[in-house]
Amino acid sequence: MAGDSIAKFTQALAGLKRQGSGLLVVGAASQDTHLAACRRLLGTSSDEARRRLVVLTDGVPGAAARTDDPSVRVIDRRPTTRGATATAPNTEPTGPNGPSDLVTLEREIVAAIESIEAEADGLDPAELRVCLDSLRTLVDAHSAEEVERFLDTVLEAVRDVDGMCHVHFPVERDGEAARRFADLFDGTIEVQLPAGGARVEQRWHLRDHDVSTDWLPL
Length: 218
Known about the structure:
The chain is 38% helix and 21% strand. The protein is built from 7 helices and 10 strands. Strands 1, 2, 3, 4, 5, 6, 7, 8, 9 and 10 form a 10-stranded mixed sheet that branches. Helix 4 packs parallel to helix 6 (144-160). The longest helix has 19 residues, at 102-120. 37% of the residues are buried. Pfam families: DUF7504. InterPro entries: DUF7504.
């Protein structure tokens, strides 16, 4: 990237951190690539003070694979999660059918955000980090309109407290599925592991700022 493009991207990203944001993480289904992005976006316990909420709806690795923060709040709605609540003290009880009721899941997420804000007695910009993994399960089980309404509500709740939410969707950015929901988000992050590559790469596209980066090491 040219120097002026880097500066424009840096300024845009700083604005998203101040104002709250939603980011769609896309790329071919790969636990390594999406987990790498998730760890970066959630951060570790050694980072500046953060509060983290992880929402699991797919057969994906749990919160321990994403952050070393023992206080992370987890809503686990994966279809089968035997023993999950026993190993994660901050995990909400898992329903028998996974994320079958979007309205209920939406309420749980909003309530968790409100609880976290109350415990913190107010949140600083970018202090709250929310992960939803993944959109694929929700799209498979519900109409696009239902998923859009769900995302609208969840992203609004995160932005209202100046938090940052990222949503995993293991599909290609240029595909119809990703394009359907991309405009609900402030930006899209593509992730990939190049053939023969040793490191995951990322490429950002920030919608309102008309900024796209080159492929960069994650």
